[in-house]
Amino acid sequence: MELAASADVAAVRRIQALHARMRTAPLDGVLECIPAFVTLTVYFDPLRLAGDEGRVRIEEWIAACLAQASEVAPAEAAPPREVVLKVRYGGDAGPDLPAVAAALGRSEEDVVALHSGAAYVVGAVGFSPGFPYLLGLPTELHLPRRSTPRPRVPAGSVAIAAGQAGVYPQATPGGWHLIGRTQAELFSLERDSPALLAVGDRVRFVRETERAP
Amino acid sequence: MIEVLAAGAFTSVQDLGRPGWAAQGVPPGGAADPFALRVLNTLLGNAESAPGLECTLRGPVLRVAEDTVIALGGAAVVGWPSLRRVVVAAGQVIDLSTFSGGARVYVAFAGGLKVPRVLGSAAMLPRSGWPGLAGRILQVGDSLECGSASIDPRRGWAGRAWSVAPTLLPANLPEGALRSLRALDGPQAEWFSAGCGEAFFATEFCVSARSDRMGVRLEGSAVRLPAPRELISEGVAFGSVQVPPDGQPIVLLADRPTLGGYPKIAQVITADRGIVAQARPGDRVRFVRVTLAEAHAALRRQEAALVQLRHGVALATKGCG
User: Fold this and answer.
1) Which residue, B29, B32, B11, B9, is CA-closest to B21?
2) B257-315 pLDDT, tens per residue?
3) ∠ CA(A89), CA(A91), CA(A96), 5° rounding?
4) Is A129 within 8 Å of B24 when comparing Cβ atoms?
5) Pick from A32, A37, A170: which is nearest to B232 by CB?
C-alpha cells in the first residue's frame, strides 16, 4: 500500500510507525511486511486469509494499525535512533572520490564536508541484506549511477548515487560511486537483529581521524 | 555420509528459505520450485522444509557411504526414477549429471541434509558471505550428512515401487517448449497502455541464458511504458514480473532482492512457481491472465493434493510397518 507520493522524512516516519504497530499487533496469516520509502508491502498466506473474508480481515487490520499509528503524537513517540558511522574517505577506501569531485566541479574536501555534514534517514533496507538507502544527501552531491557497475564492491563501502547515500554491507556487485569505507558491520549474524539499520533510523557520517588505530 | 564426486553446474542446498527477515533486506530464498521440494520431503516422511539439493541444468555426482533413501523430482534424471522412494546402497554412485524436461532437479534425502542454518534456514544465498553451504554452491570434495530418518532403508517397503502421480508437479517439457504461466495484473499494470497490456499477454517470450535464481529473464518484443515514469522502490514477490527500461521482462524467483524499482506488469500465480522455475534458456514463455479467484482455486487444489499425498504416505508406511 502506498502511504505518500514522495520519499521524504515525513513519509518514512509514517511508514515506520505503521510497521511498528503491525509488529506489535500481528494478524494471523500475515507472513511478512516490507517498509520502503512510501510503501508498506504486506505478504500473506492466501489459504489462511482466503477470499473476500480474508481480504476484509486484512483491510480491517491495516485500517486499525493506521489509526493507532497516527494516534501517537510525534512528541510522544520514542525519538528515532541515531547511528554514527566513522568513515575513511578517499584513497583506497573511496576510489571514486576524485571522479565524483570532478563530475560535481568541487574539491574532494568539499564533497567530504557535504557528505559528512548532512543528517540522513533510512528510507529503506534492501538490495542486499542490511543495505540502507539513506535520504538526506545534499543536492550538491546528486549524480547518476556509474555507467558501468563494478562486479565487486568491497564490504563497508560508503557510496552515493541517484540522490541517495548508502553503505554496502557485503562484497557485492554495485553501481554507486564509492567515496569512503566504514569498519561498522552493517549486517552481522552475531546480532539478534542482524541489520544495523532499520527504516526510520537517523544516520550521520563522521570522518575518521588519521590518528585512529 | 554423502560424498560429492562432481559438483554439477550450480548445485546448492535449499529448503523453504528464511521468511521473516525481508524488512532487513534478506531475500526469502529457498528452493526455486518450493512445491517440488515439499512433495519429495513428504514422500520421504521428512518435514516439508527439510534441506535437500537443488541441481541446475547439470546435476552433481554423489556417492553414499551408507544405505540411504532418496527421492528425485522436478526435471527427469536419465537413469533414475522420479517422484518415488529410491534406496541407494552403501557405496553406490548417484549420477545426476544428465537430466531433461526442465532446468532444475531436486534431491531429497530421508532425514534431510544436516547442515548449519543461518537465520533459521539452510538455503544457500549467493554473495551473502555466510558460512559453509549457506554461502556457496557445492564443490567437489564436499561431504554431506543426513539427519535421522523416519524410514529404515533395510525394511522391504522403503523403496517399494509406488510413486507419486506425475501430474502433481508440472509436466516435463522438451527444450524450447512453450510454458504457459497463469498471471494476475501486477501492481503497476495500469501504467502500461491497454494495448501494451494486451500485447504482453499475447506475446511469446524466450528465456535468456542470463536467468538465475534471482529471476527468469525474458527476451521478446519490448514492453514499453507510454511515457517514462519512475517507480520508488518497493517490496516485490516471488513471481513478480518486472519491466526494466529495455522492455525485457524479468520474472522474479527465490533469490530476488527484497525491493525492486521497476514497474510490475504482472504477477505469476503461486501455483505456477514450478513452471517458471523449470524454464531453461531457450524455452518459450507466455502469460495467461487469470482472476484472483482462479489463482486461489489453483493453489487450493495444489495444497489439497499435497495433503492427500501426506496421508497416503502415512498409510503406506503404517500398513507396511
Assistant:
1) B29
2) 999 999 999 999 999 999 999 999 999 999 999 999 999 999 999 999 999 999 988 88
3) 80
4) yes
5) A37
B303 in A contact zone (CB under 8 Å): yes
Residues 272-301, chain B: which have Cβ within 8 Å of A?
Answer: 293, 295-296, 299-300
From residue A6, how far is each of A3, B183, B219, B226, B231 by CA, in Å? 9, 29, 32, 22, 10
| Full-model pTM | 0.95
**Same domain (yes/no): A177, A91:** yes
Domain termination site, one of A29, A46, A71: A71
- Min Cα distance A33 → chain B (Å) is 7
What are the beta bridge partners of residue A90? none
- Name the residue of chain B whose CA is nearest to A54's CA: B296
Residue B320 CA to its chain's centroid (Å): 32
Are both A48 and A92 inside the same structural domain? Answer: no
Are A64 and A88 in a shared domain?
Answer: no
Q: Does residue A1 lie in a domain region?
A: no
Are residues A121 and A156 both part of a single domain?
yes
Write down all domains in chain B, each with its CATH number in brackets.
2-170 (no CATH), 178-290 (2.40.100.10)
What nine digits make up the cell of B25?
Answer: 533486506
